[in-house]
Design a protein that fits this description.
Layout: E1 8-10, E2 30-35, H1 39-51, E3 54-59, H2 62-72, E4 76-79, H3 88-97, E5 106-110, H4 114-123, E6 127-130, H5 135-155
Parallel strand pairs: 1-6, 2-3, 2-4, 4-5, 5-6
Helix pairs in contact: 2-3, 3-4
């Protein structure tokens, strides 16, 4: 199955211990809602994005994501796939079905198997980042999604790949 235009799949592998980021950027670059049931992964994503100047809010699963998204008003959402209550695909599909959230860029941060990528595309996901990931790649994907959203907003088109 070919990828629709605008869908990004980033596959990186961690190269062992080493520094990630050593500077904190003043002023928020955007707000990211990080959704993962694994506390360690949530914290890893949160810290790396905060070090690059993003404001980060976290949720434990897809159901909590849907509960808080209207209060958080994120610029980007990252979703794990396998989570209790509501998985990442279900959350992405519900985000796309809601006119208030269908424009939000969504990235899956998971193993990113071929089946996951195909299911994610069907649910309207904009980007994929394979675990384990390089922190720099995470930041690059989030920046690109925000830039793409900003370009579309300037042109008057919705930012997400929402279906309708």
């Amino acid at each position: 199955m070919g990828r629709p235009v605008g869908v990004e799949v980033a596959k990186t592998r961690t190269r062992g211990p080493g520094r990630t980021y050593s500077r904190v950027v003043s002023g928020a670059s955007g707000r990211v809602l990080v959704v993962d049931d694994n506390k360690v992964i949530r914290q890893l994503i949160k810290v790396n994005l905060e070090l690059e100047g993003f404001e980060v809010v976290t949720a434990n699963d897809g159901a909590e994501c849907l509960d808080v998204v209207h209060h958080v008003l994120p610029d980007v959402i990252t979703l794990d796939v396998v989570m209790p209550r509501l998985d990442g695909f279900g959350a992405a599909a519900q985000l796309r079905a809601d006119p208030r959230t269908r424009h939000l860029p969504v990235a899956i941060v998971s193993a990113c198997t071929q089946n996951e990528v195909e299911a994610g595309i069907a649910a309207g996901v904009d980007a994929f980042l394979a675990k384990p990931f390089e922190p720099a790649e995470l930041v690059r994907v989030v920046h690109r999604l925000i830039e793409r959203r900003d370009r579309r907003e300037r042109k008057g088109a919705p930012a997400g790949r929402g279906r309708g």
